Each structure stands twice: as C-alpha cells, then as structure tokens.
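Now for one specimen:
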Amino acid sequence: MKPEDNANSSTAEQLQAEILAAALGYAKKGLPIFPCKPKDKRPYTDHGFKDASSDPQIIQDWWGRWPDALIGLSTGRASGIFALDVDLGHKEGENGLESLSALEAANSPLPETKRTRTPSGGLHYLFRHPVGMKIGNSAGKLGLGLDTRGDGGYVIFPPSRTAKGKYSFENPQTPLAEIPDWLLKLLAPPAAPKQKQLTPPVQTSGLLAYVRTAIEGELNRLAASPSGTRNDALNRASFALGQWVGGGALSEDEAECLLFQAAQSCGLVADDGENSVRKTIGSGFSRGKDNPRSVPASAKKACSNSVDVVPAGEDGQESEETRILPPPPPVPLEVFPAAVRAILEEAAEAFACPVQIPTTCLLGVLSCLVGGTRLISLRPSWREPGNIWIATVAASGIGKTPCAAAFFSPVKRLEYEAFRQWREEYTAYENELDFYRKERQKAKRGDPIPDKPIQPKRRQAYVDDATVEALGEVLSENPRGIMWRRDELSGIIADMDKYSSGNSGGGTRSRLLSSYDGQEWKTSRTSNPTRNLYIPHAYVGIFGGIQPAMLPKVFEAGASGVDEASGFLQRFMLIRAEREKPGYWTERYLSQPSKDLLTSIAAALWTWDIEYDAEGREVEKIVTASSQAKSVFIEWFNRIAQEEFLSQNAALLSKLKGQAQRLCLLLHCLDAALVGNDGMNPVTEDTMRRALLLADWVKEHQVQCWRFFAAEQGAKQADPIERAIMQVVVEEYARIEAAGWRISNADLLTLVQSKLKMPGLSAVKIGRAASGLGLAACSVNKGDRGRTVTKEKIVEFKATVGTVGTVGKHCGTTGRSVADTVGQPSATVGVNFPDPGLPTVADSTPTVDVLPELLAAQELPTHPTVPTVPQEQPPKFDFDDPNFPDEVRI
C-alpha cells in the first residue's frame, strides 16, 4: 500500500471518528438523530426520521454499520428545533439571501441565532420550535430559495461531510433564538373557511341522566378524535345516537345538531365539508335506527350524577364496548427537559414498567422537595404550593416499588445526612441541657442562670408509616412540608381516623384536606398542653400506588360518598399504568449518570427552605408568571370552566385548575434546579404550555380512573390478550373484509402471539378471550375453524385501541404525538418518506415528540454533578474539553 493510501485511510478514520463523536454529543443532549447517505442525504434507516434516537448504543450500532453516514436531525417538536434553509442561488432565479433580505426589510431583521453552513454555501438558521405548536415544512413559501423544516422534516447537522464539503456551525456558542412573530405569522396555515351558522346548541339536560351520559360520552369522543380517525368517530357516534333515536329516547333533529356541532368542534367540517359530514351522519343514523336501544329499567330508577357512567345494553347488562377501558393515555414526555426525559425512558426499560410509573415517581420526588418553599400565584389571593397527591393505579407486580425506590434514593440519602447531623447536634444539646439543669440547681437567688439550650430540629422530607398525630409532630419541625409516601396507598386511606383522638385530634381526612392547601394546623390537648401544636402553614404531599380493584373499596365515592363530597378524592392525581407486553428479563439498569442527575436535582431543591422575617413570621416566596404565560393559562382555564359547567364530570374537574398550577410550579422548579437558580424568576410561556399539556394528560387519566367508581358500569382494564386481539382485528381489517368478515383461528393465534411476543401462548386462552369480546366461532376455508368479525366490532375495537402504537423499547410508552395546541387530543399520524433530497412533507407529525433542548452550552444545566453523557459506559470523548472542535462541543 502506498504511503498516501495510508494517509488517506487514516484521515477517513479520523473524520468518521469525529462524526461519531458529534453524533454521541447530540445524543447526550437528548436530540433525536439518525444516519443519512452522503450521496443524496436520504436516511439509511427504513423509516427515516421516525427512527431517530438519542440512545448511545443505537447510534454506535448505526455508525458501526454506516461509518460514512451524515448526521440527520429531526426538526420540529421532535428536537425542539426549527430550521430556515437559505439557498444561495445555485438554481437559476433562486437566491435565498435576496429573498430573506426582502422579508427582513418588510418586517424586521432576524434575531441572532445559531447557524450552520452547508457544503454548497447555504445557511440553516436554527430557532427554538414553539412548544405546543405545530409548524410543518415548506419549499419556496416564504420566497425563492427559502425552505423551512419543522414537524415531519429534518436537516443535516455538523460535522457531516459530503463530496462537496463539510457542514459546520458558524457561531457555535450562540444560543437558539425564538422564532420572530412576523415569521410565525407567515408560516401559519390558512384560516379555516367559515362554517354555516349553526342553530343554538341543543342542551342534553332534559334527557334521562342515563341517556345523557351515554350521548355526552359519544360526543366527547368525537370532539376529541385526532386527525385521520374523525370520520370513523363520526360514523360510530351517528350509529350510537341513531340507536337512541330508534328507541325513542332522543329526537333525530336533536341528535343531528349535536353531532354536527361535535364534528365542527374537532375540525371535521372544515376538513371534509358540510355535505360530507351530513352524509356520514345520515348513514350512521340509518343503521342505528335499525338497531334501536332502550333504557334498562334499572337505569331508569337511578343513575349516578357525579361520575361518567357508561350505559349498558338493552338487557341491562354491560356491553363489551364500554366494559373495557382504553389504554392509559401516553405520557407527554416532551414536557420534561431532554436529560430528564432520557431518565424516564431509561427507568421504564430498567424496571420493565410502563413509562407512566417513573413519571409519577419523578413528580412525587419534585413535590416532596418543593413543598411550600415556593408558591405560584397567577392572581391576587390565589396561591398554590408545590405539594401534590399523586397515585399510580396499576396491578401488583408492575414495577412500582423498585422504580419509586430508585427515584427517592437521592432524597433518602439527603435525609440520612440530615439525620446524622441532627444526631450530633442532639447529643451536644443533651450535654448543654444537663449543664443548664445543674447550673440552675446550684444557682443562688440572684445569681445568673445560663440560657436554656434550644432543642435542634430534625429535618425530614417524607414519612411512611405514620398517624396524623405523628405527622403533625414532623410538620412542626419541617415547615417546608412533608411527603406521606406509601407503596400501597390503600393502607393510608383505609387506616384513616383509626387512631385519631376524636375531637381533640381531628379526623385524618379533615387534617389532610387542610394540609393540601397549606392551611394552619392546630392541636389542643388538655392532658398534655406541652404537646399542643400550631403550624401556620401545613404542607403535606401524598405519593404511592393503588390497585384498580381497590379504588372503589378504599375511596368513598359516588352520589353519597364522603370522599367525593368533601373533595378528598378530587385532590388525587390518579395515573393509570398497564403493561403492553410481559416484563421480560432485562440487563438494563438505571445508569450512574442518570443517578447523578437525580441526585443533582434533589440536592439543588433540598437547599430551598422556609425563610422568616425579623419578627419570626414565615416569608412566602411567590413565583409569578409572565404576561404571555398568564394569557395561555387563562385560555386553558376558561376551556376547562366551560367543560366543567356542561359536563357530568364537574366534580372530577373541580380541582384540575389548581393542580395545573402546581404542575407548572414543579416544572418551573425542575428547570431552576437544572440551571442552578433559585426559581424566583417568572414562569415562562414555554413552561406554562408544558404544564398544561401535563394537566390535560392528568385529566385524561382521571376520567379513566373514575370509571372504576361507577357500580353500574363495572369498568375494567383490558386483559392483555383481549387488547392484542382487538389490535389484530383493527390492523387486519382489509384482510378480514376480503375473507368474508372472518379470520381463521390459526391466523389469529399467530398474530396475537406475535403482537404479545409470546410464541407459546395457548390457543385456548386466545379463544376464550375472543369469545369474551363477542367474536363468534365459525367455519372458514374448507372446514377450518375461525371467528366472525362484524363491522360494528371493528368500529368498537378501533375506538378502544385504534390509535395506540408502541414507541421505543421501554414498556408502556405509546406512540401518540402530543397535542398540536394545548388542550387538544393527541394522535399518531403516519408519515411517508419523501423523495430524494431534503424532505418537503408538510403538516406531518413525527411519532415521538421530545422537549426542545437548547444547543448552546451556556443554556444547558451547569450544576457540577449533572452528567454529560446519559449512558452506562463512559464516553470516549470529552465533549466539554475546550480543545475539542467547536462544531462538536455543542
């Protein structure tokens, strides 16, 4: 081999190592990347940007397979980055700089932001993608030579190389700027055409409660249906309301008006037109009236007015359609900083549990550490502290306990260190007290007596097995608040008032109700006045798990239940979690960098405490919000107020508005802990939007969990086999229709086994589950046995599992992208890969959405213990080394 060949080979290896190092560097920031071909910039992977990952092992594998690959970065909500692509005029008549200059002259100059230079001399202006907003891609919309890359797009990132040259950052230390308002307006989609004026809304309040609840449930599902499923949802709702019309419980005019309003609310009228919508309604009515539904006698007598009771079939028995709950709403992971989101995903894999569990654990830890040290106030006289009551509703053995232990481990270590210090101080106090007593005995009249030593207070963050009296003692020494943590919350709730001391001590529930809002806590004991307590502001959080079957047994809900009437139940954020596949053995574990980051967050928040003025009174630390953040909250607040006013779930929604502010405060404090400030800066619009997405997620879980309280309904979580069968039926719709609405047992067995990744699953169990779902046995293909599938069953199953997918390798994460705007429903939208070159697919949504993560070094967490690479093995490169190339240091 010639010397120059050796040199070229060495140079190529260095370039490949540089690109791999950069790819891992982006991954450590939580940015989703994927490999692209140097020749045409198309992805190497089958699904393009939908395969993007920030997993270091996956990235190592990709670049091990394609060492010459370019670094593709998903734009839009996937990474939090929006790109303005400026072509310098390599095509006749196209000069992006001239077009950009004209735009800036007509509006205002672009703000200074991070830029990359392409091998052809073009520029990519990089901005922060607005949270909660959807911005697609465009080609030439802004002017010749100007393209945009948002949701559903991607760009090539430095230091990628093509035959023409290298991608590089022009200003690597410049942070990402916000997209200017004038550019956002130019990128906004055209306004929807005005719709025909509707007649005044038809109220459902005059209907029988049983029928009203059923109709409102159908209308709510239709109004919340995501794009791509709306016509099916309208067809299903029309069929359902047509049944009530046929049974005489509802007039056709009323039903049509209600359906049309819901179709307009979800955007279907704007998308498909009024004629198409009314045609679908008429078709559904026709079939529904041929299958009339009447009200069961038992439902005519009484129906709960407080929870969303779903109707039964004509015979008074539950219908399978309403008996099985849909999958738990997926976690909107993009509300969390990228490094924290990576911990949640890693924990879900490490503990083989749904990602809802580590999410509730994280929120529990934040509540435990923030408590009353900060309060959020969006208007005078309304303040919300950081303590929340949150519980995971999941079956035993799903991984709640080990996951909670891992997340609370840093808090436990901080408590131990505080205990060790308190023990030393208490020993010294006892010695001083003994000296004081002796000196006092020896002192003669008039002799000075030394000051009595002050007993040191033991600092604590949480308690587990405690009575309300013991809780008061702990609170008296910990004014910042305390977390009552139990693996099984049923123990706390079932034991309430068991040991309370009657009128002198007050009931446990009433005590906790006052502590939820930080009210005063007083005790008066005639038997032992020295133990009387006065706590100006008692803050108690509650965290733990509870099994679904225990909910109606533990809580007193329903029309006469005291827990609902008092608001005790409504204060709990109940988060459902279900396994989507068996909890197989895994070698994954919570990596040391992830543990370090949790420790860093806990240590930062642990330094916050209650402060006092010169007269010894508590000084409340109030966090306010920017005017933009407050406007976003008011818009959301008013939407919830309307929903509460018109809904049968008014009791459920009553505390959501305060819970949303508490979630906002926790996210705000989490951000503060990551960057090392005291959290007293105003809440930003970005944080508020993230918090409201989280609040809407909590609301969806609440609605599902409250269905466990309706005795008439008997809602239950789906059996995994039942869910797999429903998913198979929905996915094999075309094949089943072609086979005469039948599917063979052999095919069903194979598909369900594959879906569950359980090749040895018994055919008998699958058959029983199919029968339970109403799939009748039949003959297919020369005597082979199978199952009959009706069109109605397809619609029914699709309503339950039709929008659910699996994203990532961890259990329980669902592939539904988060709302385009705050409060809108989530959906999965399939995206086909574009033609060669940079993508120009507009209005498409990536499967996985993540939090916008800043590229600039100064915008990232600077706490000394924050890990730099969230992976199990130490990195091969020091990304923070000042001698490392600027374009890779991020």
Q: What stands out?
A: Residues 192-207, 298-322, 498-506, 803-890 have pLDDT under 50 and may be disordered.
